[in-house]
Amino acid sequence: MDTQITNGAQRVIQALEREGVEYVFGYQGGAAMPIFDALHDSKIRLIVVRHEQGATHMADGYARATGKPGVCLVTSGPGATNCVTGLLTALMDSVPMIVLTGQTISPMLGKDAFQEADTTGITYAVTKHSYLVKESNQIPQVLPEAFHIATTGRPGPVLIDLPKDVSSGPCTAPFVTDIDLPGYYVPDRADAELVAQAAKHLSAARQPVLYVGHGAVISGAGAAIIQLAEKLQTPIVNTLLGKGACPEDHPLHLGMLGMHGTAYANKAVANCDLIMAIGARWDDRITGKLSEFCPDAVKIHIDIDPAEFNKIIKPDVSLAGDARLVIEDLIPLVSQADTSAWLAQCEEWRAQYPLKYPKKGGLRAQYVCDRLDQLGGRDCIITTDVGQHQMWAAQFCRTTKNRHWISSGGAGTMGFGLPSAIGASLGTGKKVWTVVGDGGFQMTMCELATACHEKIPVKILVINNHYLGMIRQWQDLFFDNRQAGSPLPGNPDFVKLCEAFGMKAWRVKRAADVDKVIQQAMDYNDGPCLIDAEVVQEDNVFPMIPAGASLHDMITERPKEKMDKPTGST
């Protein structure tokens, strides 16, 4: 087949085929036309998006749901720069992605040609690696390298910038079969002596906690973590992106920790004598005020990326390796201390501080998410946008299967929900719900056109409070309720909008109608559908730990007195 390849663009597509790529999410443009033309003859399916940001989020959702790299193809200049937000989102959350960008012809580089941008320069900070391909014969080496980098170790996005003369020019070089990247090392199993040290600490702990992050999802470490937790009889908590690594309905699971985590998870973390981070990075949403975060607890950190060690927390033991392999090595070395009193205390906290919300006074977003969970959402993939709805979905939609929860964590990217759901649906064929806010949904709602054209049966739940809800909450609690820029009075009628796209849609305003509408959406599979849930406008998400505060400063309801402005970011 290699002898039939006549130009770089055809070689690019052959490389994608060799990597098993199923879909390319893309938007046409002049500098990328040779690659799109070559894609026309491939079995790889092109999903035409309505904005390049949507392409990156679709590829991201596909990758998170399947574990395989998502692929985007866009043009130069604004086509490439429109991908920056999606690249940052994928980098922050360790998502494997390949972004192919067209570029002006090589002789015009640096001369401000039409739709030229320094794409590699712009994207170095938001990619695991960026390539500018200068010769067509580099393509058979660069593409396999890019996939290897994107998918190994700590996954991440890789960008490949392809000048039009490179993609149009003849390519005669063969594909490389052995990847040789000096200095690129991927740990697998941790140092045996350090594993033994960690096991000794775990075996001595009377009040331990396993703190599970996205790395556990990526490595598929859930079964091993459950085995370790049951052997040690220790509670489990997870980050926002760690949802689903271990089933959240397991008796030892206390749910999500952190800024809007369950009160009982945060109580356990605040009072533990050992905390072991598994594929988690001690981010500020978890630790709050660093000087008061588990000051007397033994800290163990498992991560495949050694750059995370000592970045925020200085652990007693750092284990560089794949989370699943490290946990599997730990299991035979640990023995159980008496944790019965600790587990009893955790159950007391669970009973004393349950997740709750008002049952009167209008339709509550919490109730809608709770009913989605009860009516089958737990068996579906759920993606979210970013904001209050994201936290309510995280609290009330329990995740029991790996890769069934997809959300923008590190970057907190509004507009992520809908396109990521499209990618997840295409990648898995499973039922996919996306829970979005009325603000974030409007950032990428143009992708309804893609969903409708492709008849992708994503189910969209709009938590519509006519606000940027999380901003309004902070304004309410810390800025004397001065609502600068948070109201959204110009929202469209989302049901009529869907009718314009030829979509099925419902509006719900009463709790009594929620079950019926959710079930109708659950049963509808002829294309995308949407529920516009008109919820109480000024509800707040609790529990809450103000940014920069400690776990001990958690509030479970609106305080009666004015609070000090937080020292950390939203």
Task: Give your account of this protein's structure.
- The chain is built from 23 helices and 18 strands.
- It has 570 residues and is α/β, with parallel strands linked by helices.
- The chain folds into three domains: 2-168, Rossmann fold (3-Layer(aba) Sandwich); 192-352, Rossmann fold (3-Layer(aba) Sandwich); 365-542, Thiamin diphosphate (ThDP)-binding fold, Pyr/PP domains (Rossmann fold).
- The strands form three sheets. The chain has a six-stranded parallel beta sheet, with helices on both faces.
- The mean pLDDT is 96.
- Compute the number of helices: 23
- Shape-level CATH architecture of the largest domain: 3-Layer(aba) Sandwich
| CATH superfamily annotation of the largest domain | Thiamin diphosphate (ThDP)-binding fold, Pyr/PP domains
Please identify the structural class as seen in this structure.
alpha/beta
Separation, N- and C-terminal Cα atoms: 54 Å
Question: How are the SSEs ordered, and which strands pair?
Answer:
Layout: H1 8-18, E1 23-26, H2 33-39, E2 45-48, H3 52-66, E3 70-74, H4 78-81, H5 84-92, E4 97-103, H6 119-123, E5 129-132, H7 139-151, E6 157-163, H8 164-168, H9 192-204, E7 208-212, H10 214-219, H11 222-232, E8 236-238, E9 253-256, H12 263-271, E10 274-278, H13 284-287, E11 298-303, E12 317-320, H14 323-330, H15 340-352, H16 365-374, E13 381-384, H17 388-396, E14 405-406, H18 417-428, E15 432-437, H19 438-443, H20 448-453, E16 459-464, H21 469-478, H22 494-501, E17 504-508, H23 511-523, E18 529-534
Parallel strand pairs: 1-2, 1-3, 3-4, 4-6, 5-6, 7-8, 7-10, 8-9, 10-11, 11-12, 13-14, 13-15, 15-16, 16-18, 17-18
